[in-house]
Write a structure and sequence with these properties.
This protein is of the alpha/beta class. Helix content is 41%, strand content 12%. The protein is built from 11 helices and 6 strands. A 6-stranded parallel β-sheet has the order 3-2-1-4-5-6.
Amino acid sequence: MKVLSFDVYGTLVDVRAGSHAAFADILSSVGASHLDPLEFWERWEAANIRRYWQPYRSYREICRDSLAETFAHFGIRGNAGLIQKYFDAFPTFSRFGDVDGVLDRLAGRFTLALGSNIDDDLLAVTPLGRTFDLVCTAERARGYKPDGTLFRYLLREAGVGVNELLHCGQSQRTDMVGAKPLGITVAWINRRALPLAADVPKPDHEFRDLRPLVDLLGG
């Protein structure tokens, strides 16, 4: 392997915990504090992923439209512009505790890349703790992971073949669905110990966090 690519939100950064307060605030703003913010967030995120398959639009636009859809699902009358509360939370997100140590050990031996379904400005305010060798976003690729657009862009920008890339990500519906059909080796970072869905391609490796990557890649 020459290049290690990483999903950001949910793999390096705890977006679920980091956005909880923002979504609780959104629900409070529309008189729906009785709803579980995490349940609401999960449905909103699923709506985002469905939109990733459509012709490219910015992540901000997708999030806004998905919020409107999720409001409608729960019978809420609300302004989808409230999604700004989520965007405002990005600088407060925290990295998982294993991330810095593992990346420190891998840096220099491999090209470290990011592959993220995100807009550049939101990635720029996310506390990543380091500079990566290659940054590939949906904005730059003009497409998202599930249909392979972002992964094809990553391969072109890295200048490597599929056998020289290991992608590490947490999402079955974006990381594995997008990368495996292209022949990319995938390490599923299954932090929540979820079962693999029957219609999702099986990853090459499955780990609970990033630490096993060190042994996998030879120390």
